[in-house]
Amino acid sequence: MKGYAMLGIGKTGWIEKERPACGPLDAIVRPIAISPCTSDVHTVWEGAIGERTDMILGHEAVGEVVEVGALVNDFKVGDRVIVPAITPDWSKVESQAGYSMHSGGMLAGWKFSNFKDGVFGEYFHVNEADGNLALLPDGIDPADAVMLSDMVPTGFHGVELADVQFGDSVVVIGIGPVGLMSVAAAALRGASNLYAVGSRPNCIQIAKEYGATDIINYREGDIVEQIMEKTHGKGVDRVVIAGGDNDTFIQAVQMLKPGGRIGNVNYLGGGDYVRIPRVEWGCGMGHKTVAGGLMPGGRLRMEKLVTLLQTGRLDTGKLLTHKLYGFDKAEEALMLMKDKPKDLIKPVVIL
């Protein structure tokens, strides 16, 4: 089969590989909609997870089941399915402890384009199909649904990590596709003043549509100063970090109230350390909590999130600025994520 792969750090290209084998609990899926992620960019061009050779890229897909293992009960050939980016091993003790995304080791629930070939192939393998696939309901556009693989659950998890409650004041730092989903999730959870930090006009417009009450443009001044001015020096209850760099934690701590909470879902692709400002952290005693985590994966998560599309509570189509057609467009879509033209939020390839 053909696949678009990481050949080595800084190198990508099309390769030929054997079609993956299907274990008794597993499924083989043919993609019908795929999308590249900034994580793919970090993986290839920053070497964020180390060297990978001839590894097929991609972890966001909706597809059609072409083969199931003998022990798969709930899925059959021909089913159209949503495939989460995180596909845990559900029998591992980490899953039983409530951290399925780390089943088998830290971040080991993230398998596609990390430990095994990803979804930018003509076929791809899904472990534990009954626990890691979800049926695509009739009437849901596969292009919209592919955002449920990663963008929606990652953005929503940032809000969960920050523990946003009704009436909380919330800052979302970074309003790319993940940050926009954090804005949407914070609004759904009842945030009152919802500050979105970004500068690109199209992202600002969509952030407002998803519920942002204020836009903080980092090109117009220090974001901490702007937040403190808007909150009359009090700061905010919650901060979600969905963009920036290792030093963004400094700003997040500075704008956070004592007793507040930071939820980080930004993939830190480089550097050795994250810095926390000592004084603004209350010399270690300010009850300012920093939580960072890989999104939960699995079937239940996908089934719940797709109901938000069915009921109209969430419109992921707003994220899709570039629709490409044909498997050979996977390369072009990835380069869009790498180069990030001004009008881009998220590309999708429809097969």
Q: What does this molecule look like?
A:
It is a single chain. The protein has helices at 38-45, 93-96, 129-132, 142-145, 151-162, 177-188, 201-210, 223-230, 248-255, 299-310, 330-339, and strands spanning 2-8, 11-16, 27-34, 55-56, 61-68, 80-83, 124-126, 134-135, 170-173, 194-197, 214-216, 236-241, 256-264, 289-292, 320-325, 346-350. Helix 11 links the parallel strand 15 and strand 16 (346-350). The mean pLDDT is 97. With 351 residues, the chain is an alpha/beta fold. The strands form three sheets. Strands 3, 5, 6, 7, 8, 15 and 16 form a seven-stranded mixed beta sheet that branches. Helix 5 crosses helix 6 (177-188), helix 6 (177-188) packs parallel to helix 7 and helix 8 (223-230) runs parallel beside helix 9. The protein is built from eleven helices and 16 strands.
Global structural class: alpha/beta
Share in β-strands: 15-25%
Oligomer: single chain
**Secondary-structure element order, as H and E?**
EEEHEEEHEHEHHEHEHEHEHEEHEHE
Straight-line distance between termini:
15 Å
Spatial extent as radius of gyration: 20 Å
Low-confidence stretches: none
Q: Describe the sheet with the most strands.
A: 7 strands, mixed
With helices defined by DSSP (H or I, 4 residues minimum), what is the helix count? 11
Dominant shape: globular
Number of strands: 16
The residue fraction in helices comes out at 25-40%
Integer average pLDDT: 97
